[in-house]
Design brief:
Elements lengths: L8 E6 H14 L5 E5 L1 H5 L3 H10 L4 E4 L2 H9 L6 E3 L8 H6 L2 E5 L2 H10 L6 E7 L11 H13 L3 E8 L10 H14 L8 E5 L1 H6 L7 E4 L24 E6 L2 E5 L4 E2 L5 E2 L4 E6 L15 E4 L2 E6 L7 E5 L8 E8 L2 E3 L1 H8 L5 H5 L6 E5 L2 E6 L1 H4 L5
Parallel strand pairs: 1-20, 2-3, 2-9, 3-4, 4-5, 5-6, 6-7, 7-8, 8-9
Antiparallel strand pairs: 1-10, 10-18, 11-14, 12-13, 14-17, 15-16, 15-18, 16-17, 18-19, 20-21
This protein binds pyridoxal-5'-phosphate.
Pyridoxal-5'-phosphate binds next to strand 9.
Length: about 400
């Protein structure tokens, strides 16, 4: 059954683009290297289950999320592929991971000891050991703690070490000194292990695309699955042209002519200098179109139109290049004719990274999923919750 929505603001998710980005990576990687599709944060704002299914169809064999709730949500939506929780979980929740066949990240001997005490089940619990090679976030740093964790896992009848991994801090930078340092450190730390677990991984999107021969047997593919470059600096060096999956649209709900001296929005900070046409667009900061985007532009009738006055919680105003009817389509991210606003453009205007932009577009904005160029599904969380129909 298809959800509907009754506001004229929506995001379009091009699952064909996601399929393309994953299948191109699959071609680039050696045959024995698996793709773990990173679908944390509702697939970077795109839609977790829809992206997960598409990535799996395109050749990914594993999924990753940030915390246990996100993994459980995927299971509720009928996703049966293996899932790794990349962040910290509680030792007391290991039974949930076991029941739903979700692998957990470990990096503290005490944690494994507590989990072993608390876990009374007989289903297998799979762990990936995280090594901190220089990211300074999560991970073991010493040989003794590493050996202790492996000992504790191996000593438990239902625990097993499925993987070992690390994360790079600078894989998206042109200068590779720190990347190489971390890579060498990872090789050294792997020597601490009494045996090699089945999965060894270190590559995020930047690493997978730039150094496909340095990723062991699995990559964690996030940002570039969505068609975005891990950084502006490496964009010219990517091995294939990524296709952006996310676009954002609305419609004019009101149009009026202002006289010189008339003002717009809170604080009355914008004054019409001349006679001009102003359109009201039903999207605001509660939708993730942040107040800092004031003076940025949107597209209407294939032309740029500046956002004027303060952005409100649910609405904003634009200066129209010419009078237009109510109902005219407004594109905030995406293409209209020859004009294009990319996620990168929005990120640059906000002084942030592209990752933040689709993540910030909130649950209030319904998502329309396109597959094989036609609408496959509509999700409206405001009206239908996160239930999967
Ligand atoms: C989010 C995340 C990734 C994905 O990184 P991208 O740069 O989006 O490809 C990989 N590994 C870990 C540990 C992460 O947290």
């Amino acid at each position: 059954m298809m959800n509907s929505f009754y506001r004229d603001t929506w995001a379009e998710i091009d699952l064909d683009a996601i399929y393309y980005n994953v299948s191109q990576l699959k071609k680039l990687l050696p045959d024995e290297t698996c793709i773990m599709a990173v679908v944390k944060a509702n697939a970077y704002g795109h839609g977790d289950a829809q992206v997960a299914k598409t990535a799996l169809e395109a050749g990914a064999s594993y999924l990753a999320v940030a915390f246990l709730d996100e993994a459980l949500a995927l299971r509720e939506k009928g996703i049966t592929a293996p899932i790794l929780v990349l962040g910290a979980s509680r030792p007391s929740d290991v039974h949930l991971a076991a029941k739903h066949k979700i692998s957990l990240t470990v990096f503290q001997p005490d944690w494994v000891e507590q989990a072993a005490d608390l876990y009374k089940g007989t289903e297998r619990v799979r762990f990936h050991l995280k090594m901190d090679t220089g990211m300074g976030r999560l991970g073991v740093r010493e040989e003794a703690e590493t050996k202790r964790i492996v000992e504790l896992i191996d000593g438990h009848p239902y625990f097993s070490l499925e993987g070992v991994y690390t994360h790079f801090a600078t894989a998206d930078e042109i200068n590779t000194d720190y990347f190489s340092f971390q890579y060498r450190r990872f090789l050294q730390m792997l020597e601490w292990l009494p045996y090699k677990p089945p999965m060894i991984h270190c590559g995020n999107s930047a690493t997978a695309l730039r150094f496909p021969d340095k990723v062991f047997n699995m990559v964690r593919f996030g940002i570039s699955m969505y068609g975005l470059s891990p950084s502006p600096a490496i964009k010219p060096y990517l091995p294939y042209e990524l296709k952006e999956a996310f676009s954002l649209h609305s419609r004019l709900v009101h149009v009026k002519k202002l006289q010189p001296g008339e003002k717009v929005s809170y604080g009355a900070t914008y004054t019409a200098e001349t006679e001009q046409w102003i359109g009201t667009v039903p999207i605001g900061y509660a939708d993730g179109w942040l107040r800092k985007l004031q003076n940025f532009h949107v597209l209407v009738n294939g032309k740029k139109a500046p956002i004027v006055g303060r952005i409100c919680m649910d609405q904003l105003m634009i200066r129209l290049p010419e009078p237009m009817p109510v109902g005219t389509k407004v594109t905030l991210i995406g293409r209209q004719g020859d004009e294009y606003i990319s996620v990168d453009d929005v990120a640059q205007y906000l002084g942030t990274i592209n990752y933040e932009v689709p993540c910030t577009v909130s649950y209030r904005v319904p998502r329309i999923f396109f597959r094989n160029k036609s609408i496959m599904e509509v999700r409206n969380v405001v009206l239908n919750g996160n239930d999967y129909v």
